[in-house]
Structure formats: structure tokens, C-alpha cells
Amino acid sequence: ALHSTVKMSNLTVTSVYTTTSDTDSNGALTITCKDENGKTVEIRTSSKLVRADGSVVVASDFPRGAVISVKGIVDYFNGKYQIKVFSVKDVTVH
After folding, report:
1. Distance separating alpha carbons of residues 15 and 17, to the nearest angstrom
2. pLDDT per position as a tens digit, 38-57
3. CB–CB of 31/72 below 8 Å?
């Protein structure tokens, strides 16, 4: 259901898009993955993610083929469901 909390693991990264804009979305990432059944899963950061040391998470932190786990909420954007994450701790690269 929309805005439910969801956790997914064993997602394989297929592509990453970085938003470039003059808004709060600047630096936000859309990480497109495939689950174990080959289904596409989109993960969207609410804004750019910043680590505890102040460094910004960038697309190259999620190389194509990397396996990740994610925790976020179910959101709906541009006619598609996606998992929205709010913190760098919500996405783990294995």
C-alpha cells in the first residue's frame, strides 16, 4: 500500500540517474534495480544523501551489477511505484 514501510534485499543495480536541478531534488538519485525474479524496482532518494563525514553519496557508489538492500516507503511518481529512501543508512551495498 502507498506510504507503507518496505524492505527489499538482493536487488541488482541496472542503472542510476542523478537529478540536476535548482530545487531540493538536486543530487537526488534514482536507482533502478532488478529483484531476484527479474522485476524492475526503482529506488528514489528524497534528496541528496550525505554520510556522517559530510561526503555526498553519488551514482558511482551504486555501480551496475552491485547488489543492494533498501528500506523505505512505497511512493508513486510519474505513473510508477518506487521505494523512497530518506537516509544513507536506508541503502546498503553488499
Report:
1. 7
2. 999 999 999 999 999 999 99
3. no
